[in-house]
């Protein structure tokens, strides 16, 4: 499991608490350090999959961990940006949409995994993640960007565009999974709650 692609994915998770900690020492310097660390995390998101395919090291662990690492990174930053009032109120609904979609799709993936149904990541979903990451970079630096770059405005408009893509891709996933949800389960199937109760 600990091949290079998976280590890159794990490094993305390890970066999260460092970036979160820097929110408590807000300054122009720490904001740019955060952007640097966040950029490194985004780069690993590209290279882990690329290296896994090129070196034929695609693993079940990697397929499981990669989307989780993305969702943890994005969710943590959205929560911190809202909590530290680094976004205007009118952008909060976009953040909520993104968080709700990510949680819902994760639940759908878990359900389909139990049904032994694979849910591949679509090209549009990859663009959605890319837009989210670019947008969050602008929001992290915020007012400390150079005067000629309206980073806050770019970030907030970008977040709404990402929220729209989030809804579209979420709908695509649920439409693909709906036919499997309609399939009757085996007569002797026992739910997870019943198993716990036993």
Q: How many strand segments?
A: 0
What class would the helix/strand composition place it in?
A: mainly alpha
CATH homologous superfamily designation: CDP-alcohol phosphotransferase transmembrane (TM) domain
- Our measurement of the CA-to-CA distance between the termini, rounded to an integer number of angstroms, reads 33 Å
How many discrete domains? 1
| Element order: H for helix, E for strand | HHHHHHH
Describe this structure in words.
With 198 residues, the protein is mainly alpha-helical. The chain has a single domain (4-183), classed as Four Helix Bundle (Hemerythrin (Met), subunit A). Helix content is 75%, strand content 0%. It has helices at 4-22, 28-54, 60-83, 92-114, 123-141, 151-181, 192-197. α1 packs antiparallel against α2 (28-54), α1 runs parallel beside α3 and α3 (60-83) packs antiparallel against α4. Mean pLDDT is 84; it is low at 187-198.
List keywords for this structure.
mainly alpha; Four Helix Bundle (Hemerythrin (Met), subunit A); globular; 75% helix; 198 residues; 7 helices
Short note summarizing the structure:
The chain has helices at residues 4-22, 28-54, 60-83, 92-114, 123-141, 151-181, 192-197. The protein is an all-alpha fold and 198 residues long.
Topology:
Elements: H1 4-22, H2 28-54, H3 60-83, H4 92-114, H5 123-141, H6 151-181, H7 192-197
